[in-house]
């Protein structure tokens, strides 16, 4: 069992708050009852006696069954002890790993790490916390589809150097449909793994050392799903591109005598990985070990076995040589072995990954000094295809001891308080274990008593300090004042020794716990009052962060740092004038001769978003300068509203104005109104806690600090600016809603709560579990009565007078569940695009439902119903996101829904917004499951929204009665026989000249042959994606020859669409693949979308727009790739400009011109076709006497015209003059209707931005 650690409350209770304040080091001596030591849990795995390196003994030992831990320990063969050695490197064999892992002694001496099921499970959870790995693992659990459809491709994972198979067997239990393989050079360990896999097949059993933790079951036994084999990691027997995921866990890397062997391993991993596959290396940080390894240490494994270890660093500091002497009390020395490990640091592994041809996934925050190295662990991953880079230096993700948000990038601050076990083994610096092979950084024991673990006091203190900082004020109680004062004393006493840890934790909390700004502002004030130099250091740290955030346009950080400075004003760390000067520096943007609207808006927003936290103090202490700030903002807001209004806002509204039940306010306009209302309330915000007010006496005596000057970043074409989302409301206080369930949208309360929730939503995107927890905890950061479940004491509220008390009580009982739902949908429906993909919001809502099942599902169901009611007025893109989300959500809860609530849709036409919503939702659920499953879950009356039959191919020549059935069968059989390209072409040519086709024109014959051959290719490949790709690749030259003209390519698109008309998902995938293989082109797909049979019948179906958007994305992506390539070769040319490189640059420039021209042609075709169809249909609708308002086709068509313009505004506006001249010009009858033209103009205004002249 991991050692028991004291919580923060236990620690303070044991020390006694009535005693003089002690540092954590002093407290360690006082709290002797909470020792961090604990007994080592050993899982003995006896085996027969084997010799040191005898192959025969190894084989014999491996052949025997696994013995119970109750059996008597075997007698080991006594070996010679080498005594003191002068040259330990010379003692290490190049193949030491063949003998060290040859028998069960390794599992005995390291069993408390490598045989601990908790550690193994924790390591698997670490893998699951990597988003790319989680995606692969989750894909394996997709429910099986019937044989009539293409099955989901098997997901395969490999544990390289798998040892006794503990990770493979744990994954087999967690992911029953995952195909797993394990490879290791040790026959003994592989045989043990195979035996455990067989044991796991037995009913109600689990393999040794690993407990079943997952309810899912598989029809295949574990021994079939988990295959183990003896092999060399440098040269495996697997085929190329076999695995989706390769893991190398437990520091099982760097055992070879030279780096070239490790490079071979990485190249072998590249070979067996599928394109886009992931490799994860789980290593101990070499930099840490060089500084912290222990030269010697020893431990009792049990009452009769003791292990002594020595370590030496090689001269080049690249390898750690270790010696392990194992002794039995009744036998003496039974093993004296030497081994070595290569110490890789993060950069070296990145280079190793890149050198092998893999792409490291690198985090922008990973090089920051805030990265926690206390766990001495490094977890890296690479990818076999281009992707945004992200690598991680993991701090342990350990359990126990509390700690901050468990996030994989930026601000690593786990543990703290009671220390935390870190999951055992490698995950805690207090543990001695260095991974699979042993203990490269254990510390010498303080004595020879019955202690089994060595405590790294410095690391433990730093974890506890970090934990105390992170957890303080998590839930505001009457002890907050005492806790803050106590914590300030502890930090002050320990600051000299642990300043880096304290500053790092404060930085992370300021930037990642936005709802606790007042806590950390007050804590900084108390530290400043105790030691002005400490206060100066914190202010300097925050100032540098603000400067960096401005330079890199990290606007959320800018906002949160300004809020922190606001709290420093309240805590008397900086003067109001100092912060007002910073605000004026931001507002200097408004003095620019012409300023882009987004730039000016961002500057004003940063100022206004800071005021709720400090306006009262600044107004009281410096009213003159404070009023000047408001005057400058007011001047800008007046000028902003003049003219044609806020560009782009009208086309980013979720609902149509005339049908929306509330006023859709533009975000900065809304914030200004909220600030004006706050001014009327004399700047009092009764929902915010003011802990600084309880320390007025102490804080008032402290010295203040100045802030440096800041400047907004210079605008460039790539600069982006921040703005919150427009007002979006779901719950309006009617139809059974709770009275005052949510704050008034025009009160500053609405901004404060929504802003805090939105920040948490975005900051914790990497970890939805932590995000759900902190979203729910936001309610505990406000004064009591703010939320229905709040428990903040009124003593901490800055209540002044009866009016403020009444104001606070007026907001009592807000529903955190409804607020969470509203905020998440606000971000999900944000236009033109949300900050994250829809799947994030979906997975988060699933997590919240599971975490808080008693209250949140009810609020979510109510939100769904209200949004469903408003579908007729909802933007088409938002409706698309809505049904995409709901289908995914239902798939996580057994596809259960109260369909009878929506029975009214049964009487509506097929193209009505609600009918379309249900049909599209069901089609998406079929993709996530299978046809029969959804059909069974749906009431009979709703069956009409399902397709008539299960998704499948539609082969035109299938019927024997078809006149060309025999010809098609002949071609199909020839393809099935894998005949050569020459033979296939001869067959097609003979058919083209057949007498029965003599009545057709040459063009008609070409069309027939193209259709015949393409249909046969699709039919042969209809079993799976791999089948169809194999067929396409085998006969690609024929397909390309048959599609050499624009008309032929359009014809092929139609053929594919017809073949897969009953499975639109595969239709889109096949068109995408043919686009990749250049069988068809983007213009052909665009033309198909605007063919009469499509736009007249299918425009209300989302698959059409999915295909079109995917096609446009491909075109844009190709331009981006060529631009990146040009930047790369230009850098090479600037560094070393030989003639050859200059030619390469010129060649890439020519390629860029070509792809830019192609992109322009695609979008020009898109707009020409789209406007032509809209214009002709508009005239037809008006001629029929139907009103446009009642025409669902017009609503859908115009909606998607708007959405495509919003989505691709950057590309569209890059040649807007050309579009305007060719598409939107014309007079009289040729003039484009202004309802169409106005959308185009608004899109251009949204992207370009109208300059505002204020001077």
Automatic annotation (TrEMBL):
Region (Disordered): 45-69, 362-452
Keyword Nucleus appears in the UniProt entry: yes
Domain of life: Eukaryota
GO biological process: mRNA export from nucleus; mRNA processing; nuclear-transcribed mRNA catabolic process, nonsense-mediated decay; RNA splicing
MIF4G domain sequence ranges: 462-667
InterPro entries, A to Z: ARM-type_fold (IPR016024), CBP80 (IPR027159), Methyltransf_25 (IPR041698), MIF4G-like_typ-1 (IPR015172), MIF4G-like_typ-2 (IPR015174), MIF4G-like_typ-3 (IPR003890), SAM-dependent_MTases_sf (IPR029063)
GO MF, one annotated term: RNA cap binding
Start-end of Gly residues biased regions: 396-405, 412-426
Record GO cellular component, one term: nucleus
Chief site of localization: nucleus
Compartment(s) where it occurs, according to its Swiss-Prot or TrEMBL record: Nucleus
Compositional bias (Basic and acidic residues): 429-452
Signal sequence region: none
UniProt keyword annotations, A-Z: mRNA processing, mRNA splicing, Nucleus
PANTHER family (alphabetical): CAP BINDING PROTEIN, NUCLEAR CAP-BINDING PROTEIN SUBUNIT 1
Family note: Belongs to the NCBP1 family.
Protein name: Nuclear cap-binding protein subunit 1
Species of origin: Entomortierella parvispora
């Amino acid at each position: 069992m991991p050692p028991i650690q004291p919580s923060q409350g236990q620690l303070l209770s044991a020390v006694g708050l009535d005693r003089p304040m002690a540092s954590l080091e002093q407290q360690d001596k006082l709290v002797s009852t909470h020792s961090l030591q604990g007994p080592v849990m050993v899982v003995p795995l006896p085996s027969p006696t084997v010799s040191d390196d005898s192959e025969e003994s190894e084989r014999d030992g491996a052949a025997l069954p696994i013995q119970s831990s109750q059996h008597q320990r075997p007698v080991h063969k006594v070996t010679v002890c080498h005594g003191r050695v002068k040259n330990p490197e010379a003692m290490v064999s190049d193949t030491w790993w063949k003998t060290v892992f040859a028998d069960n002694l390794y599992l005995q001496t390291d069993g408390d790490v490598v045989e601990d099921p908790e550690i193994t499970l924790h390591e698997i959870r670490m893998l699951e916390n990597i988003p790319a790995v989680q995606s692969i693992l989750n894909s394996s659990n997709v429910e099986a589809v019937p044989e009539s459809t293409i099955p989901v491709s098997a997901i395969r994972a490999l544990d390289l150097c798998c040892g006794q198979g503990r990770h493979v067997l744990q994954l087999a239990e967690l992911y029953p449909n995952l195909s797993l393989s394990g490879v290791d050079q040790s026959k003994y360990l592989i045989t043990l793994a195979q035996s455990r896999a067989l044991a796991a097949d037995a009913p109600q059993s689990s393999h040794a050392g690993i407990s079943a933790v997952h309810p899912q079951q598989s029809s295949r036994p574990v021994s079939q799903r988990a295959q183990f084999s003896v092999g060399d990691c440098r040269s495996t027997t697997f085929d190329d591109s076999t695995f989706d995921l390769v893991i190398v866990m437990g520091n099982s890397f760097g055992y070879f005598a030279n780096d070239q062997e490790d490079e071979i391993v990485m190249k072998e991993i590249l070979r067996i990985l599928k394109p886009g596959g992931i490799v994860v290396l789980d290593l101990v940080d070499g930099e840490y070990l060089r500084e912290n390894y222990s030269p010697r240490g020893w431990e009792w494994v049990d009452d009769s076995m003791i292990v002594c270890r020595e370590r030496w660093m090689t001269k080049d500091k690249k390898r750690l040589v270790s010696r392990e002497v194992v002794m039995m009390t009744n036998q003496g020395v039974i093993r004296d072995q030497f081994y070595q490990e290569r110490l890789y640091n993060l950069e070296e592994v990145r280079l190793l990954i890149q050198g092998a041809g893999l792409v490291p996934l690198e985090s922008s925050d990973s090089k920051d000094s805030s990265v926690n190295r206390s766990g001495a662990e490094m977890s890296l991953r690479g990818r076999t295809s281009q992707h945004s880079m992200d690598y991680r230096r993991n701090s342990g993700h350990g359990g126990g001891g509390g700690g901050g948000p468990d996030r994989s990038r930026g601000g690593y601050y786990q543990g703290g308080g009671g220390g935390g076990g870190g999951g055992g083994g490698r995950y805690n610096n207090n543990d001695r274990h260095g991974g699979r092979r042993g203990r490269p950084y254990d510390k010498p024991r303080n004595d020879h008593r019955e202690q089994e673990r060595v405590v790294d006091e410095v690391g433990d203190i730093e974890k506890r300090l970090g934990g105390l900082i992170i957890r303080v004020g998590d839930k505001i109680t009457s002890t907050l004042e005492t806790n803050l004062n106590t914590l300030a004393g502890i930090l002050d006493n320990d600051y000299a020794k642990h300043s880096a840890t304290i500053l790092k934790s404060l930085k992370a909390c300021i930037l990642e716990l936005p709802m606790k700004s007042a806590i950390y502002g007050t804590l900084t004030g108390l530290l400043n009052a105790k030691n002005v130099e400490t206060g100066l250091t914190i202010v300097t740290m925050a100032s540098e962060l603000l400067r960096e955030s401005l330079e890199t346009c990290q606007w959320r950080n800018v906002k949160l740092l300004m809020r922190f400075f606001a709290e420093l004003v309240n805590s008397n760390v900086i003067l109001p004038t100092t912060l007002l000067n910073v605000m004026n520096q931001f507002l200097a943007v408004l003095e620019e001769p012409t300023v882009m609207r987004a730039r000016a808006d961002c500057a004003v927003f940063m100022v206004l978003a800071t005021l709720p936290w400090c306006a009262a103090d600044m107004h009281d202490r410096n009213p003159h300068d404070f009023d000047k700030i408001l005057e400058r903002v007011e001047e800008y807001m007046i000028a902003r509203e003049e003219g044609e209004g806020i560009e782009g806002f009208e086309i980013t509204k979720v609902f149509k104005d005339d049908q929306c039940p509330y006023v859709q306010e533009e975000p900065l306009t809304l914030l200004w109104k909220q600030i004006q209302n706050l001014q009327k309330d004399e700047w009092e915000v009764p929902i915010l806690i003011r802990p600084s007010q309880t320390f007025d006496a102490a804080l008032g005596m402290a010295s203040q600090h100045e802030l440096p000057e800041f400047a907004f970043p210079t605008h460039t074409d790539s600069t982006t600016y921040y703005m919150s989302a427009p007002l979006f409301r779901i719950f309006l206080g009617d139809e059974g809603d709770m009275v005052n369930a949510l704050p008034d949208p025009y009160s500053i309360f609405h901004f404060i709560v929504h802003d805090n929730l939105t920040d948490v939503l975005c900051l914790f995107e990497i970890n939805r579990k932590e995000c759900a927890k902190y979203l729910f905890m936001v309610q505990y950061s406000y004064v009591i009565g703010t939320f229905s479940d709040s428990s903040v004491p009124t003593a901490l509220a800055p209540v002044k007078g009866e009016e403020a008390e009444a104001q606070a009580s007026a907001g009592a009982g807000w529903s955190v569940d409804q607020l969470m739902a509203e905020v998440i949908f606000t971000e999900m429906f944000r236009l033109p695009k949300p900050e994250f993909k829809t799947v994030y919001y979906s997975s988060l809502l699933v997590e919240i439902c599971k975490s808080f099942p008693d209250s949140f599902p009810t609020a979510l169901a109510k939100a769904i119903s209200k949004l469903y009611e408003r579908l007729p007025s909802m933007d088409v893109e938002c409706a698309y996101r809505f049904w995409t989300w709901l289908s995914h959500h239902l798939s996580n809860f057994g596809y259960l829904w109260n369909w009878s609530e929506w029975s009214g849709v049964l009487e509506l036409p097929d193209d009505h917004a609600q009918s379309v919503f249900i049909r599209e939702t069901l089609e998406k659920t079929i993709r996530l499951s299978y046809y029969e499953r959804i059909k069974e879950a749906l009431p009979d009356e709703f069956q009409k929204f399902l397709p008539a039959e299960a998704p499948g191919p539609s082969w035109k020549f299938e019927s024997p009665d078809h006149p060309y059935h025999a010809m098609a069968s002949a071609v199909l059989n020839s393809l099935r026989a894998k005949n050569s390209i020459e033979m296939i072409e001869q067959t097609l040519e003979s058919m083209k000249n057949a007498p029965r086709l003599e009545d057709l024109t040459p063009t008609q014959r070409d069309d027939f042959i193209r259709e015949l051959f393409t249909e046969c290719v699709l039919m042969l490949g209809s079993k799976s994606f791999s089948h169809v790709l194999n067929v396409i690749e085998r006969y690609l030259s024929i397909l390309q020859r048959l599609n050499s003209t624009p008309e032929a390519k359009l014809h092929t698109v139609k053929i594919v669409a017809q073949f897969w008309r009953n499975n639109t998902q595969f239709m889109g995938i096949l068109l995408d693949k043919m686009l990749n293989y250049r069988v068809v082109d983007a213009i052909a797909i665009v033309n198909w979308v605007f063919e009469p049979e499509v736009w007249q019948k299918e425009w209300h179906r989302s698959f059409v727009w999915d295909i079109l958007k995917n096609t446009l994305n491909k075109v844009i992506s190709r331009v981006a790739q060529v631009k990146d390539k040009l930047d790369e070769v230009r850098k090479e040319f600037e560094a070393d400009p030989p003639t050859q490189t200059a030619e390469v640059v010129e060649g890439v420039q020519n390629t860029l011109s070509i792809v830019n021209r192609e992109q322009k042609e695609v979008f020009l075709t898109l707009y020409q076709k789209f406007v032509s169809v809209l214009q002709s249909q508009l005239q037809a609708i008006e001629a029929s006497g139907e009103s446009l308002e009642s025409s669902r086709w017009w609503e859908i068509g115009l909606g998607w015209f708007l959405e495509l313009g919003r989505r691709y505004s950057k590309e569209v506006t890059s040649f807007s003059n050309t579009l305007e001249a060719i598409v939107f010009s014309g007079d009289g009858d040729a003039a484009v209707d202004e309802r169409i033209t106005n959308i185009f103009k608004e899109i251009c205004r949204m992207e370009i931005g109208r300059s505002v002249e204020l001077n």
